[in-house]
Amino acid sequence: MIAKTKKILSSDLVKVFSYTGFSTLIKLITSYVTVKVVASIIGPSGVALVGQLQNFTSIFTTIGAGGINNGVVKYVSEYKEDNASLQKYLKNGFKLTAYFSGISSVFLIILSTYFSRWILFEEKYSYLFILFGVNLMLLSFNNFFLSVLNGFKEFKKFVIINIFTNILSLIFTIVLVWLYDLKGALIALVTYQGFVLLITLYYLRKKTWFSKQLWGSWDKQILKKYFSYTLMALVTAMTLPVSQLLIRGYIIKEYSITDAGFWEGINKISAMYLMFITTSFSVYYLPKLAEITDNNILRKEIIKTYKIITPVVFVTLLTIYFLKDLVINILFTKDFYPMKDLFLWQLIGDFFKIMSWLLAFVMVAKSMTKLYIVTEIVFAVSLVLLSYYFINISGVIGSTKSYCINYFLYFVVMIFVFNKKLKISK
Question: Are 94 and 214 in contact (CB under 8 A)?
Fold first, then answer.
């Protein structure tokens, strides 16, 4: 038992958790302060509008990057010892990012009035979409460089940059919300990301790969590989955020924007603890899976990760449920107490979501494009349809019931899909 414990503690996964632990702690603190300040000043209805804009910016953040960030992680990890091939992947990835982000920026600026009316229900917010368009290229380049660092497994630099990003986000948000209330929160959301590029460039200035020419001729084979990731990422960008926009809009239509704020609040809580898992998955798990070519080794890696993650997730979610009153008091205000009824189904859904992610990441790491696209679309549509059905029957709590059922079904499908290939059940 002691030997097994030592082996687990010395594993790369645990090391990455320790590397990212401090960064995640900082992010949790900054997220807590941000949520608390925003919720206290602008209330549930303001939180709902911020959620609307966040979903929209996440869509265009993915589009602006060309959807290739996971591909960059995979191919840098795979070809980091082959300098000639590595340079080709970096040049093509950088050019794709420049083209996608440039076109997206122009698109955002031209259609700013339309997006303002569609996303935030009023034309007066069009300036936000112009600001986001101006910052999108900077944000996209920053995400590209971070993906390269991730592929090289330079965890410490990756963590340091993320810490600075979180601190900068906190400062922007608090200052602007304090000065301009809801307007300040929305401005902070679309502006701070661009400044983070300066921090990333500072840490990359001495890197050999960074000092070389990053602009070169197109390589059709490399583009074809990257475009499989583009398809997967764009499907993700157009499924989960869009489904959340539709569900939130339906709650606003059938009930009120305040009820939508409660639903957004429970999603904020989920996001705060899920980011610890997703950060470690992205930093360690994805490049690790990309390196493995033998199915037996891949199966062992997945099972090892399940053994580490499952008890941690279960205890965390159980603790949050029993302390939900305290959680609401700490993160929000008394105006958010009606949110208590949403915890049970949301937390169970989060458990199945994390368990399914461990298998879903294999699709990304192994470029299983068709399967990934089909499952993403099917379960995004089912989430919306289930939400409409259960919201009609149970009210706002129906949105969390549908969330739980949807991710349970997703988990079952992931087990079924990978059972034969990887012998997960054994």
Answer: yes
In one-letter notation, the amino acid at residue 351 is F
> CA neighbours within 13 Å on the CB side: how many for 306?
16
Give the single-character DSSP code of 22.
H
**DSSP 8-state assignment for residue 293:** -
Q: Output the CA–CA distances (angstroms, integers) from residue 194 to 138, 201, 205, in the order listed.
A: 5, 12, 18
Model pLDDT for residues 296-313, shown as the tens digit of each residue: 888 888 888 888 888 988
Q: What is the DSSP letter of 285?
A: I
When divided into structural domains, the chain yields a total of 1
Count of CB atoms situated within 10 Å of the CB of 94? 20
Q: Which of 95, 206, 209 is nearest to 141 (CA)?
A: 95
Given the structure tokens 């059940």, which residue do they identify?
A: 425
Q: Is 309 exposed, middle or buried (0-12, 13-18, 19+ CB in 10 A)?
A: buried
How far is residue 310's CA from residue 326's CA, in Å, rounded to a whole number?
A: 24
Q: CA triplet 65, 70, 76: central angle to 5 degrees?
A: 105
- Secondary structure (H, E, C), 76-128: HHHHCCCHHHHHHHHHHHHHHHHHHHHHHHHHHHHCHHHHHHHHCCCHHHHHH
Domain interval for residue 195: 2-422
pLDDT in tens, 26-77: 766 776 677 777 777 777 778 788 888 888 888 888 888 777 887 888 888 8
d(CA 242, CA 231): 16
Q: Give dist(CA 365, CA 70) in Å, integer.
A: 8
Q: Which residues, in sequence order, are CB contacts of 161 under 8 Å at separation 6+?
A: 146, 149, 196, 199, 200, 203
Quote the pTM value.
0.72
366 vs 71: CA distance, rounded Å: 10
